[in-house]
Task: structure prediction
Amino acid sequence: MSRPLKKIEFWGVFITAIILVIVVPCLNAFTAEDSFLHISNFTINLYGKYLCYSVLAISVDLLWGYTGLLCLGQCLFFALGGYALGMYLMLMIGKLGQYHQDLPDFMVFLGYPKLPAHWLPFRHFWFAASAVVAVPAVVALVFGFLAFRSRIRGVYFAILTQALTYAATLMFFRNDFTFGGNNGLTDFKFIIGYDLRSPTTQRFLYIATALLLLGTYLLCKWLTVTRFGKVQRAIRDRETRVLFSGYATANFKLFVFVLSAVIAGLAGALYVPQVGIINPSEMAPDKSLEAVVWVAVGGRGTLVGPVLGAIGVNAMKSWATRAYPDLWLIFLGVLFIIVPIFMPKGIVGLPGQIRSMRERWRRKKPADPSLSSIEAALPVETPVTTTGEAHK
Result:
């Protein structure tokens, strides 16, 4: 990347960070509600949801765009992080639930005599925060070790991750799995002693999400420009050649797979208190497919593209589900067909695609049509030799 482009990227990230972390919260907290510049509590909560999806999209792109691993189960790790924090939030409800007992409401309804043993440590925030990182990492480590050790790649890896996600979804839908069944975990009230329904708490959760997005972007940017990132892209483009060069590609892929799972888990953990619910539908295979669409729309193999794709597609989803609720899935399908055909590099690649089209058009078009017509009307002169005689 040339120095001018680096400067443009630096200032773009800096200005975006200022807007997301400082300007947007200030417009929510310090402007009058009837002001044109005011950002409502609902809107800032919606922005926080979009930013969580952006972090999830970066984790997908780190696998698919930079390593060539199409994972159709990334939302499993997103949901596992959400469930880890959701268990802590459920225990913080206490006797303020519908049944006024120490057990979560769904456990009282299902007749649990006491809190299951694996729920007890989640009374502590530090344990829940550790589980947000550890649970997705362990699941990704075990699954990735078995998959990469067996040299599974390409479409087979995508199918296996989808199967893993589907199996986990079925398990979490069961009421006897102690995670609330199809209703999941909801009705949260407090986080580390603060009221979750307070605008101030929601504002700080939004700021934490914006900082997570910024930190994820910078970490992945640094990782992709190092020697590790070069090997990562070489695995994507020609893994066999990398193997013959002496690199253990399975270890590289396993590291990236675990890292992307941790990033997705952190995004899910911040998603849950802002949305107020986590259930098995958040880890369903179709959710992971949507995340792949965000990356494809924004631009695979870039870090800005997934963010633009996640925000753009979800903003369009919010509009379409209100205006045309029965047609949203059709819009999504059409988008997934149009992008690979007409926008192979996504939104980020559109400027370059337009420039290349203009250059091809200029090559085909003559420089001055009037001169071309005049030259065509002139008689062709017969070349002469040095002695003045015409060639026969």
Notes: Strands lie at 185-186, 190-191, 194-195, 277-278. Residues 40-284 form one domain.
